[in-house]
């Protein structure tokens, strides 16, 4: 990647400079990341090989787990390694690559969550048309468009990052490269670029969140006409989705929809949606979902028999 900046590398300050706390960061986030990868891979394998999880909801959950695994991998390994490293150096090209990967899989997670809400809306509000509307070919096309949309969003972030000249300080007060911490180091007035970040990432997060809340409000309103058993099952599924949406979009909106100001909680908020949410998603979707748990048991019995 060609660049003509005077700064060729950055130093990531991480979550803390205290040696004892750095060891705590290494231990805690190593456990979090290992559990995230194992939990999401378990869901991926279960859906891939189970004969009972063939519905569109699990088709989309499969891709949510892929996005979660890659999204967490874009930041967690470096955070873990840097916690025990004397020099937390990242090259300019590596930094730009991290911005790309972070936003690629972050946007993919947003689009998949929206598709899961659409799936629930059609299943609950238009049950007779559900097999026709959410047939396999349609789901595949929707996922393809999600990947394309994620790629376009990520390219837009890179285009903004490449506009930034760096000629002075190279210490990033963060544990990963993203547009917000890079804007603080740029040797230029970043007001316009920050507005573009808000119009891009901020609008994506906010618009998707509003659409999701409206869709779930409509779904919950329509449940009045369902039987008690149908209401219970639909509420269980929708509650899981709503929890994931709030956990993911709350921190995203806080980070990407505001002027270029710094708060002491920024890094911890970023940790929550880049590392904690991918860790919690498998727990939410397995502990609250009897079908997934039963499919896992069946696969386990087949494996040991």
TrEMBL record:
CDD domains the record matches: 7tmA_OR4A-like
Task: Give the UniProt keywords, A-Z.
Answer: Cell membrane, G-protein coupled receptor, Membrane, Olfaction, Receptor, Sensory transduction, Transducer, Transmembrane, Transmembrane helix
Q: Where in the cell is it found?
A: Cell membrane; Membrane
Q: Name one GO cellular component term.
A: plasma membrane
Question: Where is the major localization of this protein?
Answer: membrane
**Superkingdom of this entry's organism?**
Eukaryota
* The keyword Transmembrane is annotated on this UniProt entry: yes
Which chain regions cross the lipid bilayer? 24-45, 57-76, 96-118, 138-162, 201-223, 235-256, 268-287
**A GO term for molecular function:** olfactory receptor activity
Any Pfam family: 7tm_4
Domain G-protein coupled receptors family 1 profile, chain residue ranges per copy = 39-285
Extract the InterPro entries matched here. GPCR_Rhodpsn, GPCR_Rhodpsn_7TM, Olfact_rcpt, Olfactory_Receptors
Record membrane topology: Multi-pass membrane protein
- Record's family? Belongs to the G-protein coupled receptor 1 family.
Instruction: Supply the name of the protein.
Output: Olfactory receptor
Species of origin: Orycteropus afer afer
Q: What is the lineage of its organism?
A: Eukaryota, Metazoa, Chordata, Craniata, Vertebrata
**Quick one: which gene encodes this?**
LOC103210749
């Amino acid at each position: 990647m060609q660049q003509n900046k005077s700064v060729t590398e950055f130093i990531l300050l991480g979550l803390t400079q205290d040696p004892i706390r750095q060891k705590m960061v290494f231990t805690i986030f190593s456990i979090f990341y290992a559990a995230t990868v194992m939990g999401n891979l378990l869901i991926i394998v279960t859906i891939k090989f189970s004969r009972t999880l063939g519905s569109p909801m699990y088709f989309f959950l499969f891709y949510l787990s892929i996005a979660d695994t890659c999204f967490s991998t874009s930041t967690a390994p470096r955070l873990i390694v840097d916690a025990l490293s004397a020099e937390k150096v990242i090259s300019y090209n590596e930094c730009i690559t991290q911005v790309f990967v972070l936003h690629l899989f972050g946007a993919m997670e947003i689009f998949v969550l929206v598709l899961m809400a659409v799936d629930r809306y059609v299943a609950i509000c238009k049950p007779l048309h559900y097999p026709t509307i959410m047939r396999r070919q349609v789901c595949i096309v929707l996922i393809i468009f999600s990947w394309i949309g994620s790629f376009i969003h990520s390219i837009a972030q890179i285009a903004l990052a490449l506009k930034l000249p760096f000629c002075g300080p190279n210490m990033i007060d963060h544990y990963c490269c993203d547009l917000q911490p890079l804007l603080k180091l740029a040797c230029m007035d970043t007001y316009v670029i920050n507005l573009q970040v808000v119009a891009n990432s901020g609008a994506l997060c906010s618009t998707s969140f509003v659409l999701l809340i409206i869709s779930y409000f409509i779904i919950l309103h329509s449940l009045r006409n369902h039987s008690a058993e149908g209401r219970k099952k639909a509420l269980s599924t929708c509650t899981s989705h709503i929890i994931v949406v709030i956990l993911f979009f709350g921190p995203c909106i806080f980070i990407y929809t505001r002027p270029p100001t710094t708060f002491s909680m920024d890094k911890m908020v970023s940790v929550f949606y880049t590392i904690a949410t991918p860790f919690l998603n498998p727990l939410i979707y397995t502990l609250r979902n009897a079908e997934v748990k039963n499919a896992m048991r069946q696969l386990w019995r087949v494996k040991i028999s």
